[in-house]
Structures are given as structure tokens and as C-alpha cells.
Specification:
Two copies of one chain form a homodimer.
Chain A lengths: L3 H10 L1 E2 L8 E3 L7 E15 L5 E7 L4 E2 L12 E14 H10 L1 H27 L2 H18 L6 E3 L4 H8 L3 H13 L3 E4 L2 E4 L2 H8 L6
Antiparallel strand pairs in A: 1-6, 2-6, 3-4, 3-5, 3-6, 7-9, 8-9
Helix pairs in contact in A: 2-3, 4-7, 5-6
Chain A binds a DNA duplex (30 and 30 nucleotides) through α6.
Chain lengths: 217, 217
DNA sequence: CGGGCGCTTGAACAGGGTCAACATCCGTGG
DNA sequence: CCACGGATGTTGACCCTGTTCAAGCGCCCG
């Protein structure tokens, strides 16, 4: 944690941008890297463009999370990050974050911790995408959204999917139809209620069991 | 890059352990985190244990690479890392690396760069595992090994797989039989020669095309 | 009110998994 | 040095999960 004087110091370098409207890109692949971004409200998705021009979604980002870290080493963004709903963002200039981190040990440690956490979580994600069945993927995904939603003070059992079925399926490596079918099946089996984007988890135990337990990613 | 005096400073904290024999664990899930490890020679694999006790391989590591970074934030290792062949390792105590990085800006930046690179590469890997067919996965895997081998001075077109078919298939999310069949097919089509673990790429262009081009991961 | 996008559902198909049998390599001990 | 056994790798036949193709519904917004 940072002490107050340090927070003030950090505050001076951060700019709160005006809300990004739905559909707008925060950055694009090829953009020179200058800032990392902390999400204050809203929801964004990150995606890469494959050769054939189709997007490949690599993550959905909620308030409290940091995006842009993958570009530090190359100084060029390698993906696109786009708002799914109007979102407020803090832009943190990386050059200044780096020099500040020399004098504020806890800031340096925070930065490294955030990156380490992302590495660790991405391994979990990789395992899930690589090894699980479609049902397990969707169950894990719902549990993960639920946990992230609860973590920042929302409801654990009732929330909105902020992405389309198409985005969701793309992220999980499934066909839209498969995602839709499985969500319908969950609903039929009274594991969840789902109407359009609005989800209510009715049987968390069953959902966890389908997911193959624990998987908090 | 580090200047000479800095390298000397860094050298004082690094211990070169005696070679780890084949099959020995460098660290295990649950071990308290104290060091990150630079690989000097050999080959290691990292894996998680799923609920049912089966291992899920998340990476193969070659000389020049750093392992253990995922544990910085939690201070506990979340995976197992095991030598596939006898391997020489440099153990770098993290507490000292952290404090040194306060006084040596380039060291701090190197650390963050290495982590950023790992995040970025893992996204590429995730995309591959999530979206590609079995053929594409194997072609990408061979190209990746080839590139990593060439990068550190080995042959680009001729190298040994240092892992079993089982490890390879597990990593790519395939059945052993599928991996074996596809490698045989590549050989039949004169794309590669393969005898047990020894691989020779005969038609890199064809392999790249199967992989869906570029994918350097 | 009408058009389009987002979503659902059904039917047919195929890529890859599973099961099973067999081949080959390698280490170990007689 | 050879014989044996276990681990590793290959190949075939069949099956299942998830994709593809196709049609239709319903919500939202102009």
C-alpha cells in the first residue's frame, strides 16, 4: 500500500480522461505505447486481429483493472482495446510511473505485483481454454464474472453480461451457436436464469461443479 | 542494457546451482516464493495440477528464459517446474533483485520488460491454443521451437524435441494420438523429417502456411 | 411500423477424442 | 552381451462434441 504523500505524488501524473463512448478504441495495435490505463468504470474488451482480419478477443476488463501492460517491452501496442459501454479511464504516463517507482519502493512493488498477477491469471485462463469442454468454459466464465463483480461491490448472483454472445463465444473459442445452446441448457436445468444479457445464478454449487470446481478465472 | 559495474553488482547476488538432474523439480506449487530462476542450459517444463490430479503443462523453458515470475504477487509458487533434461540454473533472490532495482534504473526496466514480454507472448499463445486446429497448433509449435532454438545459436531447421509426445500433446490441448498422427502426416507430406524426438524441417514455407503464417509463439 | 442485428434452435457433418492393438526404444539385470 | 519389461510412440476403427449451414424469432431503434 502507498502512504498518503505518495498517493498525492502519483495523483499529479494521472489524468482522468472524459468517458470513452461505447465502441471507441482506447488504443489500437501499432499505436506507440506511452500510457497504461486504469479502468474506473465501464467495461472494455481487448482483441488481436488474425491474418484473415477476424478479431480474436483476449480479455474483458472491468473497473479496477489495468490495461496496456503488454506493450511496455515493445513500446508498441499489440492489441486493440475498445469500450463495450461508456467507460471512464485514468491514463498513467509510463515514463513518469517508471521514474516515480525508483523513489517509491511500494509503487515499484505494486507495478511488479500487478504484472505478476496478470501472468499468473493468464496461465489459469490458458489452461481453461486449452483443456475444458464448452460447458466447463461457460460455467467458468460465469463464475469468473460473478467473482469479479462481487469483488468490486456488485451482486454476486445477478449481473449483466456486457458483451454480445458473439464476443463471449469468440473469447472462449466456441461457435456462437454452441455458447447460446449451452446457456439455454443451463437455464433449462435451473442453474441460471438468462434473458438477453441479464444473468441470475440460481445454483452456484451446480455451476461450480460443471466448471470443474475452483477455477477462479 | 547494464553497464559493467552494475553487472558485477548483480553477479554478487546470483548463485549458480549445480545442475538439476532430469525429472527433478526446481520448485513446486505451494512452495514459498523467494527466487526467480534464469535458465543457463537444459530444458524445463512448467505445469499445474488440475483437480483430478492430472498435470496441465503451461510452458517449456529454454536457456536464456526466466521462470518463477508468476509467484511474485502471491509469494507462493502456483505451478511445478521440472527439468526435462539435466539443466543448469541461476537462482536470483527476489528480495535483493527488488532492492537493487531501486538503484539501477536499467535493471528495474529490464525486469518490467521481461514481465511485459511474458504477458504479451502468453496472449499470443492463448490465441493459438484457443482458436487453431490441431494441425495449426503443431505447425506453430514446431516453428516456435525452431525460432527459439535459432535465437540462441542453434540450428533453425534441425533440433530435438526435448519432451515426450505426451507432454507435447498435453501442452497443445490434444490427445497423444492426434499429435502423433499429425506429425506422421507432416512427414508423409515431406514437410518435416521426424524420428522419435529428432526433427528436421524440410519445408518451412509449407509449415508456416499450415500454421496460419507469422505465429512466432 | 419495419428493418436489422442479436439471439435461438434444429439438422447434418467433421475434427479430434477414445479405445484397442501393436511396434519400437531403452534401461536393467542376468 | 543378450533377454526381458516398461515406457514411449504409431496406427486403425469408431464415436462424440462442437461446428456449420439454415431457418426463424424478438428486441431495439430509426
Amino acid at each position: 500500500m502507498l502512504v498518503e504523500s505518495e498517493v498525492e505524488h502519483l495523483d499529479t501524473i494521472i489524468s482522468r480522461t472524459k468517458p470513452i463512448p461505447k465502441g471507441k478504441h482506447l488504443y489500437s495495435a501499432g499505436d506507440p505505447f506511452s500510457h497504461v490505463y486504469a479502468i474506473r468504470s465501464g467495461c472494455l474488451k481487448s482483441f488481436h486481429n488474425s491474418e484473415n482480419g477476424e478479431e480474436q478477443i483476449t480479455g474483458f476488463h472491468l473497473p479496477g483493472e489495468i490495461v496496456g501492460l503488454e506493450a511496455i517491452s515493445t513500446k508498441v501496442h499489440s492489441n486493440f482495446t475498445q469500450a463495450l459501454i461508456p467507460s471512464e479511464i485514468c491514463a498513467i504516463p509510463y515514463a513518469e510511473l517508471d521514474s516515480l517507482s525508483a523513489t517509491i519502493p511500494s509503487l515499484r512493488q505494486q507495478l511488479v505485483n500487478v504484472m505478476s498477477k496478470e501472468i499468473s491469471e493468464n496461465y489459469q485462463l490458458m489452461l481453461m481454454l486449452n483443456q475444458k469442454t464448452a460447458e466447463q468454459k461457460l460455467a467458468s466464465f460465469l463464475i469468473n464474472l460473478s467473482a469479479r463483480n462481487a469483488h468490486r461491490g456488485g451482486f454476486e448472483k445477478e449481473f449483466n453480461l456486457l458483451m454480445t454472445r458473439s464476443d463471449l463465444a469468440n473469447y472462449l473459442g466456441l461457435a456462437i451457436e454452441t455458447a447460446s445452446r449451452i446457456l439455454s441448457r443451463f437455464a433449462k436445468n435451473d442453474v441460471i436464469d438468462i434473458t438477453r444479457r441479464s444473468v441470475k445464478i440460481k445454483n452456484m454449487a451446480a455451476l461450480s461443479q460443471i466448471a470443474g470446481t475452483q477455477c477462479h478465472i
